[in-house]
Design goal:
Elements (H helix, E strand, L loop, with lengths): L1 E6 L5 H14 L3 E7 L6 H4 L15 H10 L22 E3 L2 E5 L12 H13 L6 E7 L4 H5 L7 E6 L3 H16 L4 E8 L4 H7 L6 E6 L2 H8 L9 H12 L1
Helix pairs in contact: 1-9, 3-4
The structure holds adenosine-5'-triphosphate (ATP).
Length: about 250
């Protein structure tokens, strides 16, 4: 199953992606985590791994990818054949405890150009990726909804929308829900950073509460590890429940 994890900036996409990847791996599943956010430098640390080399380098780097795209009037196919997780070249992933991490690419320097190259490679990659029943690909998306505009979400099977206790995040839950429906993808919400004070308000404000899969509490352990960029060690019940839910559908 290919899952896109999305939501507003800072809502907890990387945290949920990492915890979910670890929980699925503990159940013997083979996991590919795709870091698809060019400006996030935290996901690999939450997984306790090295940041892998930019996958765009495999196609000659960002500038080459852009040239190929422009010369072909945006029809260039970077993947002539379908790929499996095993086809990802060794230089382009990190591996730990049954979780493989790859990265579309990061912004390394000022003035180095837009992220279209990374977006195009990832759109085609996820569409060309073939998984077995025991494999999961979790895509940690860039914040917001540009990835829907790029068409990356067309290649996944399910959309997981992370919502934190803020007006912007709850508003975005409607837009992302509608966008998911428009491309006929099932979507589920994870209410995150939930406290006993905000839980009811979040349920009431979310666009479609029947789509709430789980509520993940505001957890001092997660916050502490997040603060110092440490590998996440928590095993919250909400993530265990989310894992069982995803395995059941
Ligand atoms: N349930 C939680 N309890 C406590 N802290 C949390 C929880 N979920 C996330 N956080 C903290 O919130 C911050 C943002 O989380 P995270 O980096 O996962 O968000 P993100 O959506 O991936 O961010 P970005 O949009 O920048 O990629 C981190 O410091 C993280 O430790």
């Amino acid at each position: 199953m290919k899952i896109a994890v999305c939501g507003k900036g800072g809502c907890g996409k990387s945290t949920v992606t990492s915890l979910l990847a670890k929980a699925l791996a503990r159940r013997g599943k083979e996991i590919l985590v795709i870091d698809s956010d060019e400006s996030n430098y935290g996901l690999h640390r939450q997984l306790g791994m090295k940041l892998p080399r930019d996958f765009t380098d495999y196609f000659g780097g960002k500038q080459n990818v852009l040239n190929d795209m422009m010369l072909s009037k945006f029809t260039h196919q970077f993947f002539e054949e379908t790929w499996t997780i095993d086809d990802i070249p060794e230089d382009y992933y990190s591996l730990k405890d049954g979780v493989k991490l790859m990265s579309s690419g990061k912004i390394h320097q000022a003035n180095e150009g837009c992220s279209c190259a990374m977006g195009t490679v990832m759109t085609q990659f996820i569409q060309n990726l073939r998984l077995t029943e025991d494999q999961f690909a979790l895509m940690d998306m860039e914040a917001g909804i540009e990835h829907f505009g790029r068409g990356i979400d067309n290649g996944v099977d399910l959309i997981l929308i992370i919502i934190d206790p803020s007006y912007e995040s709850l508003q975005l839950s409607k837009k992302i829900g509608e966008l998911s429906e428009s491309i006929r993808k099932p979507f589920y919400y994870v209410l995150n950073k939930v406290t006993k004070e905000n839980q009811e308000m979040m349920y009431e404000a979310v666009w479609n509460s029947s789509r709430v899969a789980v509520s993940l509490s505001a957890d001092p352990g997660i916050m502490g590890e997040g603060l110092i960029g440490k590998e996440l060690s928590e095993k919250p019940d909400a993530i265990e429940n989310l894992t069982e839910f995803l395995l059941s559908i």
